[in-house]
Amino acid sequence: MPTLLDALRERTQVDCDTMDYELAKELGPFVDCTSNQAIAYFELSRPATGDSLLHHDALIKEAIKSARDQLQQLQGPITFEEFVVEIMMVKLQLLFIPYVTGYVHVQTNTKYSYCTKSTIENAKRIVAIFEALAPELGTKRLCIKIPSTWEGLQACMALEFEGIRTLATTMFCMEQAVLAERVGCTYIAPYVNELKVHFDKG
Predict the structure, then answer these.
(1) Is residue 86 situated within a structural domain?
(2) Is residue 31 part of a domain?
(3) Glycoprotein among the record's keywords (predicted)?
(4) pLDDT tens-digit profile of 73-118?
(5) Spatial CA neighbour of 72 closest among 27, 132, 15
């Protein structure tokens, strides 16, 4: 029997806003799959069923090993811990590839939101990790999410010029949307309200 999700798919494109790939497997296929550090944290912290280990215990250990061995040369100036987080986010998104028809999205570190140079370097490192872990995909299935500050949108322009797809996120006003269009972002992610409403009570 058709579901409401099926009805939505007949009229629009449906994306996935979770990092639980089993959910995407069950309800997919979706078009794109988004992510950010908060979604990744909650997914990576999820306990395993009937076990003391985390659900993604093997993926976490693989990411640490990759950071020390196979991908070590990509770390650059960031801390080892930051590097491992980036690898884990890419690994999580690669689990979604069979269940989406478009892009998987990985977000840059928000601490670089007001530095164009650091945002570009961060985005290119994510791309390099993605290419190293899934060379058969290249960058054709990856979109980089970047906070839509002035500096972030300048980074989007530079990355789009090089063929790296971008999404301008944390967008709160029309001015940001207009600038995102002018710099050539592939996607935008307008926010209805501030992020704190999801975490602060009242």
Answers:
(1) yes
(2) yes
(3) no
(4) 999 999 999 999 999 999 999 999 999 999 999 999 999 999 999 9
(5) 132
